[in-house]
Amino acid sequence: MRVAISVREGAISSATLLKRLRSGSHKNATYTAFREVGRAIRTVQLLRYLTDAPLRRRVTAATNKVEPFNRFSQWVGFGNQGVIADNDPVEQEKAMKFNALLTNAVIFHNALDIAEIVRQLLEEGWEIGPEDLAHISPYLTEHVKRFGEYSTHELGIQPEAYDPKLDVDFTPLRDQDLTAAGFGQAA
After folding, report:
1. In this model, does residue 179 exceed pLDDT 70?
2. Distances from the Cα of 154 to the Cαs of 26, 117, 158, 159, in angstroms?
3. Comparing C-alpha atoms, which of 59, 54, 49 is closest to residue 179?
4. Is 0.70 surpassed by the pTM of this model?
5. Do the Cβ atoms of 78 and 146 come closer than 8 Å?
């Protein structure tokens, strides 16, 4: 408690505290207290996870969403095999943010392409439901030429207006997700 108040009041900087904790001195009372608090919190969270089936489903669903994104982000940031060689924290942050920006730009482009294809299929008379679209991932890589030729003469061309409307009713899928998460049940 004293440490938290000291950090809040500015008597000790968080950097100094982290240096003391990083030193690994097991005799340090602050280190020992934080280690024991961490163990207690971990134990409580583990017990919650084991006894709460909806929580396990949410954690699994979140993990299943994050892992493909991380793989895709690594694929996009292929230079130097994903290793940031600079020790400067500002340069490391820039590299990570540039990779995130590029990853999100490719995902957005893929989503636009998917939406256009779905619109074309709907115009041709195909019936596409939300369950069909739930299996499509925007993490497509086959069409991206990482080592290809890039043209810059098209940079000045104004793109067509983005149409976010897709004529697919997603309400059955949303209702199913809410029920699976435990929100559709009465308390």
Report:
1. no
2. 61, 23, 9, 10
3. 54
4. no
5. yes
**Residue 9 corresponds to which amino acid?**
E
Separation between Cα atoms, residue 135 and residue 109, nearest integer Å: 18
SS3 content of the chain, % helix, strand, coil (to 5): 65, 0, 35
Give tens-digit pLDDT for 38-83: 899 999 999 999 999 999 999 998 888 888 998 999 898 877 766 7
Distance between CA 105 and CA 138 in Å, rounded? 11
The residues, any chain, with a CB within 8 Å of residue 154's CB and separated by 6 or more, are none
Q: Tell me if 169 sits within 8 A of 128, measured CB to CB.
A: no
Calpha distance 164→81 (Å, rounded): 35
Which pair of structure tokens corresponds to residue 162?
A: 């983005």
Buried/exposed code over 24-57 (b: 16+ C-beta within 10 A; e: otherwise): eeeeeeebeeeeeeeeeeeeeeeeeeeeeeeeee
61 vs 57, 58, 64, 180, CA distance in Å? Answer: 6, 5, 5, 11
The answer to whether the CB of 184 falls within 8 A of the CB of 175 is yes
SS3 163: coil
CA–CA dist 115, 165 (Å, integer): 9
